[in-house]
Design a protein that fits this description.
single chain; mainly beta; Cathepsin D, subunit A, domain 1; six-stranded mixed β-sheet; two-stranded antiparallel sheet; 8 strands; 53% strand
Length: 101
């Protein structure tokens, strides 16, 4: 998945969400603006989202069909990222997350 500080909400591949047992068709349709225009995506509440050993519960995500050229299965947006203090060490090629209490 891709970290995107410009994305308000986390977006995950519709195919992956379906494989995990989520009913995409039942999700509420939301109009969002993407880098390539406006899209109508289904809102899904994911029971549990793991980032390494860190766990979030009941996370709102959007189901999206990413083009093959994107080379990603999802975008981690600010609704998730803002729950952590994040350290980017480019010299060490490390991203460290610490859950904000």
């Amino acid at each position: 998945m891709t970290f995107d500080t410009g994305a308000t909400v986390t977006t995950i591949s519709s195919e992956i969400l379906s494989r995990l047992g989520y009913d995409i068709a039942s999700g509420k349709v939301q109009k969002i603006t993407t880098g390539s225009g406006v899209a109508h995506l289904r809102e899904i509440i994911v029971d549990k989202l793991m980032l390494g050993k860190l766990e979030l519960k009941d996370v709102k995500v959007y189901a999206h069909d990413f083009p093959d050229e994107c080379f990603t299965t999802g975008v981690i947006g600010l609704n998730v990222l803002s729950q952590f203090d994040i350290l980017l060490s480019f010299s060490k090629k490390i991203i460290s997350l610490a859950k904000i209490d």
